[in-house]
Structures are given as C-alpha cells and as structure tokens.
Task: inverse folding
RNA sequence: GGAGAGGUGGCUGAGUGGUCGAAAGCAGCGCUUUGCUAAAGCGCCGUACCUCAAAAGGGUACCGGGGGUUCGAAUCCCCCCCUCUCCGCCA
C-alpha cells in the first residue's frame, strides 16, 4: 500500500512512477486525492464535535454531583450525538473508500528499474554456465517422465482435475530430494531460519501481502471466502510478523520455508500447459527477509545470490533478468527473475523471482521497527521465490538426459536422492 | 463440538458508568548524588490520525475486533476473534 502522504506531497512523482508500469493506476491518483481531502474535512469536523460532547458530558457529571439540573445540557449533547453519528458514517465510508483505492494501487518501481512495456523488454543482466550441447535430439520432460514413470498427470486429474500432477516412484523421490537440498542449503549455509507454516490463510493476511483484494480470482478459497489456500509461502511467512513492532537488533529476519503452493492460474489457460511447468499445486522453498529500509537493496542482491546458488550447485545454466517497469509484479519495487535453461523446451524457464517490496507489504500488515531515534518506521519486506520445484525438476531431467535415455543427476543432489542417475 | 475463565500501555497488574489515556511496580531514557560499579532521589517515558507553512502547540481516537445502550463506556448488552481449563470426539 502506498503512503497517502507521499501521494499528497509528491503527487507528480507518484503519478509518473506509476505510469511507467503501464495500466491505468496513475490516472486513479486524482480520485485518491479527492477522497483524501473529503475524508480529512469530515474527520476534522468530527473531532470538533467529539470534543464538544466530551466537554459537555463531563460538565453534566459535575453538575449532577452538585445536584444541579442537567436536562438542558443533556438535550444539547443529544443533538451533538446525532450529528456525530451522521458524520461518523460519512467519515467511515470515505475511509473505507480510500483504503480500497489504495489497496488497488501497485507499488512504485524503484528508480533503477529499467523502463519497458512488457516481458519482452526485460534485460538479461547476467548469465551463468552455458547451454548443454547434445549429440542427440533431446527429449522433453514429459517423454522422460513417461519413460521412467516419474509422474502421472492423467491419474492426478482423476483425483483433482486437470492441471494437477502426481509424482510417482523415483520422481517423487527426486522432488523430495530437491526440496531437502534447497532447504538445507538456505538454512545451513545462508543463515535462513526454517519455518514450516500453515497453508490455510485468513483473508486479512492475503490482503497483507497483496493477493487481495485485486487477485482473488487466482486463489483457491474455502469457507465462503474466509480462508484461502496459500499461493506461496510468502503469505504465511511474512504475515507471521504482522502487526508487530520489531527491534532493530533482530533485523534482518531471514526465513526459509517449504510449502505447497496453490494457484488457480485462471486466465493462463493454454500457456505452458504441457507437462508440469504450470500446475495448480506445486512445492516451493521460499526465502523471506524483513529488513530496515537502509539495508533492503543490499539484501535484495544477497537474496538473489542465495537463490542463484541453488542453480549453480545443480550445475544448471541460467540467466538473471531485471524485470522492466511494465512486467513488474503488483507489490514489487524491483524484481530479478532467475530463468533456467530447459533443452527439451528449447527455452528458459522462470524458476525463481526475487523481489523487494519496500514498505508496500509492511504498510498493509502494519509491521514496523523502532529505529535508532526510537521512531516507528515501516519495515521493508523481500522475498525470493526460492525455487519452484516442478520447474527445477524439469530442468534436471532435460539437462541430465543421456543418449541411452537415463538421467544423470547433479552431484550435489546425489546424497539426497541416494543414486547418481535415474535409469 | 459442549461448559467455564480470561484478553487493559514494552512487561506485570489495578480499575465495574462521569475530572481515566488509564493507579502501582518493573524495564527504558535524562538529571542529581557518586573513586568505579551499585544504590538512592527527582523528572521523563504509548500509538495513530487531524490541525498548523514548519517547529512549538492544540485536538480527536484507541483498554482484543465490531455493533448497541447512555448526555457520557475500559466499565453495561450483543456478535466475532484469540488464549487458558475441563468434557467429548479424533489423525
């Protein structure tokens, strides 16, 4: 959520910054300001009336204790009370409207974010490794998975519908090995604290991270919209520290969490639907950092490095994109996407997305820290989708395949998988 | 699922209709005293918002959340959330 004061005081800057995202957010600013002006007028009036009532009520108390008549004052205060409830109603409406307007505005891109209209304009800022050369025609993961019975989409569909996957046999083992590998790397070597959060999320927490109110149609809801299945561990993990005032000594907080992720993927039908690249339920190890504003940009770099390390250890060729203004996610001020090379797709696959949300989420979930001067300020929140397992799985299969159809696994994974290859 | 007890400031904890934003203690900050430490004494010590060019100042709201009763609610009533205890059920 953007700071209403920032919008008030630096209107032109906010408007220009939002305009770089494309969309129509920047034209909504005038509506926000109108609402804000109206709201403040009402509030000021309300405070005057409340002050009058408070004073006169005390007077009644004093008069009564002295045995003086109070009927006349009571009548006056009753009138004030009626006016208060009328104006209160209007003020509440204005406040609710303002909050709703603000909740629908995306975050401001950081000034360093490259300008661009969509994903085609995301610059590649670095690459690691190189595409593997094949002496034979590489297969895609669907064929490889079928050959080794690693997953079963048809039977998963019997249970849950299309877009669900069931890992089987060595495939299930490989998936589990990847999860454990990622968690161990991040917790043992990169200083993240492991958390295993709940997956069922209350409505206000979904608002806190920005999924709601705007993206409700992408979520699986339960109990008549009271709770939702977590679309990413980011939601439960960042909300663990909602409505808290943190001490600067404990910052930055670093959490790593495995959770399944549930996404309806409404509107993306037909895109990447083959195989296990885009599914409604997938496993992910997520990284979350809660920092001060002073350190968040440096922390974003180290977070990205931590996410990259997964791919390096697995020997997978990848590239890092600096998402341009037009492709930036709703709550993010800057995002690096990690894309791994998948020879069977002849394409790069996004496996990880490292974002700095600045104070956008902290405002929504009211998370502050006490700074050196004792002032309460909003934290910055960062989050690296520390690697989506099915896509990593795809990359492992497609990059590891041998001419005889077997799949050689990265060395780092062997202790977790218990064998060097799938044959 | 049933019954009961609770939720007050960073913490402990008083307050059951009026001058209560809230006693007291602890923690914290400042000052005084002081070889150092400690101790003692005194003072300060919540958040948000509105107002003001700004600072100072002024104001309003907030005692889990929401609604109600009343001239007036931390206090009375209703709903919800959460915690604890007991019973039931159960992986």
Result:
């Amino acid at each position: 959520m953007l700071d209403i004061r920032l919008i008030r005081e630096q209107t032109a800057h906010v408007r220009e910054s939002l305009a770089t995202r494309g969309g129509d957010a920047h034209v909504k600013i005038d509506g926000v300001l109108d609402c804000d002006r109206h709201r403040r007028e009402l509030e000021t009036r309300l405070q005057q009336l409340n002050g009058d009532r408070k004073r006169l009520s005390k007077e009644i108390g004093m008069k009564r204790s002295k045995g003086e008549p109070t009927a006349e004052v009571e009548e006056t205060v009753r009138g004030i009370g009626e006016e208060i409830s009328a104006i209160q109603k209007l003020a509440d409406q204005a406040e609710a409207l303002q909050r709703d307007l603000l909740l629908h505005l995306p975050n401001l891109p950081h000034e360093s974010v490259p300008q661009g209209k969509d994903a085609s304009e995301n610059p590649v800022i670095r690459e690691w490794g190189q595409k593997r050369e094949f002496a034979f025609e590489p297969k895609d993961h669907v064929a490889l998975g079928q050959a080794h019975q690693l997953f079963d989409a048809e039977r998963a569909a019997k249970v849950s519908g299309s877009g669900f996957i069931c890992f089987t046999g060595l495939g299930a083992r490989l998936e589990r090995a990847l999860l454990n590998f990622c968690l161990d790397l991040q917790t043992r070597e990169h200083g993240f604290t492991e958390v295993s959060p709940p997956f069922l999320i209350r409505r206000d927490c979904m608002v806190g991270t920005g999924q709601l109110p705007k993206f409700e149609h992408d979520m699986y809801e339960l109990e008549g919209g009271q709770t939702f299945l977590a679309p990413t561990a980011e939601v439960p993990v960042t909300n663990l520290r909602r409505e808290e005032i943190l001490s600067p000594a404990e910052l930055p907080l670093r959490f790593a969490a495995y959770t399944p992720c549930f996404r309806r993927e409404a509107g993306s039908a037909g895109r990447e639907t083959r195989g296990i690249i885009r599914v409604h339920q997938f496993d992910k190890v997520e990284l979350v950092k809660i920092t001060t504003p002073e350190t968040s940009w440096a922390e974003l770099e180290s977070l990205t490095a931590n996410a990259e390390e997964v791919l390096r250890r697995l020997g997978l060729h990848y590239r890092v994109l600096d998402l341009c203004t037009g492709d930036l996610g709703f709550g993010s001020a800057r995002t690096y996407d990690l894309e791994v090379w998948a020879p069977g797709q002849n394409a790069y696959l996004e496996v990880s997305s490292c974002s700095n949300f600045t104070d956008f989420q902290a405002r929504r979930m009211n998370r502050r820290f006490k700074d050196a001067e004792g002032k309460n300020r909003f934290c910055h929140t960062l989050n690296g989708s520390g690697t989506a397992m099915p896509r990593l799985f795809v990359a492992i299969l497609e990059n590891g395949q041998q001419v005889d159809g077997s799949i050689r696994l990265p060395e780092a994974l062997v202790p977790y998988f218990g064998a060097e290859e799938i044959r």
Summary: Chain A has 13 helices and 16 strands. Residues 40, 43-44, 46-48, 50-51, 53-54, 56-62, 64-65, 70-71, 73-78, 80-81, 245, 374, 376 of chain A lie near RNA strand B (CB under 10 Å from a C1'). Chain A has a mean pLDDT of 92. The two ends of chain A are 51 Å apart (CA to CA).
